[in-house]
Amino acid sequence: MPSTVLVGAQWGDEGKGKITDLISSDYDYVVRFQGGNNAGHTVIADGKKLALRLTPSGVMNPACVPVIGNGVVVDPRVLAGEIDMLAENGISTEKLVISCDAHVIMPYHIALDGAQEMRLGKHEIGTTKNGIGPAYKDKAGRTGIRIQDLLDEKIFREKLETALEYKNQVLEKIYGLPTFTVDQILEEYLPYADLIRPHMAETAQLLNEALRADKNILFEGAQGTLLDIDHGTYPFVTSSSCCAGGAPTGSGVGPKAVTKVLGITKAYITRVGSGPFPTELKDETGELLGQVGGEFGVVTGRKRRCGWFDAVIARYAADVNSLTDIALTKLDVLSAVDTIKICVAYEADGVRYDYFPMQHSVLYPKNVTPIYEELPGWKGEDITACRSFEDLPANAQAYVQYLEEMIGVPMSIIAVGPDREQTIFRGWSSR
Ligand code: IMP
């Protein structure tokens, strides 16, 4: 019963799309288990870059079954748009399966996401404004609308009436925003039911049967460890369980079904949105990493904040996800810098933190001093054509080995460029 959970080991945008795309041909199923269209996974089809936000990256492989699990929040407008976009690019979504229990993002969730951010002002989270938080809030509050509800007009109408009774008051009285009518939403959303009907399934049963048949499953995480609702830098997080533990709950398999956990981490680190970031570089080196690394959001186009690799975070990610392997991405970007720094611990108020600190106030720039080790770089050496570890310059090899030592997890995949073939495999096996 082999299966792999692939997770972001930083604040998202680690290059999960490329790695999923690379290894998905080894898997019979690729399952999204959390998040929604706040994700942006770039995949390459016939040399063309495509951005997937909701559909599992496995859709690119015709032999694979892409599954949207119960833990995902689905915006049907985005789903419809993505199905069309894929069709235009000659990619079939016929095999796509959507859990009957996944929750639906409604138009009022999107309106509330924007309104709540505005209300927070300078304390805003910096959300993608796709309605993710408000949809999960309704799920936890037991007032959400699920995929299966959408397919039954009577139930859908009833649930919508109950929801709007409250939501409209919040929109109007608290935020002074326009309200929604039941008929207006039904008119737009009922046609989506027809689109979704052939894809809807009890995905827990489907996946457990697949495991019994010795099929290989890849759970494709979105966002990253530090954006996890429980383990991230709360409240500057997303509203789902992005860590490996989210895969069983977000898909309906038991934890014993997971045999490997592959953490994806950049050779440096980035973050979008607000929140603490101990190794952030607000200088020309940060600018350089952003420019060379093309650090702009796939979904929002926002400029990502850049910083040095943080081994404290990586060790924490190794623990909370039980990482068995790491895929190190964008190593080629470091060819742009002279000396490379690695944060090995933090210092705050005279205390050294080798582990992720309990109190997140420690992580803020006014309190934290990252303790760095410096390693010589390989500036100017183009490593994008390296295909084995031994091809890498000695300093690049030393950097990877140093990170492995710091984290205690093997780096079995190393990406040296955006293309599929710009990858070094170092003992990775999907089983
Ligand atoms: P939300 O998920 O839209 O509610 O946004 C919450 C936080 O997570 C914000 O800081 C976003 O920038 C961040 N976030 C959400 N999705 C992604 C992602 O795919 N990559 C990186 N950051 C993300």
The major β-sheet equals: 10 strands, mixed
Strand content: 15-25%
SS element count, helices: 12
Helix content, binned percent: 25-40%
What would you report as the Rg, rounded to the nearest angstrom?
22 Å
The spatial strand order of the largest sheet comes to: 9-7-5-2-10-1-11-15-19-20
What ligands can be seen in this structure?
Answer: inosinic acid
Overview of this protein structure:
Helix 3 packs across helix 4. The mean pLDDT is 95. The N and C termini lie close together (9 Å). This protein has helices spanning 16-23, 76-88, 107-120, 132-140, 147-150, 153-174, 182-196, 203-212, 246-249, 284-293, 311-321, 394-407, and strands spanning 3-8, 29-32, 41-45, 48-52, 65-68, 73-74, 97-99, 103-104, 200-201, 217-220, 260-266, 269-271, 305-307, 309-310, 325-329, 339-348, 351-353, 368-376, 411-415, 423-425. Helices cover 31% and strands 20% of the residues. By secondary structure, it is of the alpha/beta class. The strands form five sheets. The chain has a ten-stranded mixed beta sheet, with helices on both faces. Strands 14, 16, 17 and 18 form a four-stranded mixed beta sheet that branches. The structure holds inosinic acid (IMP).
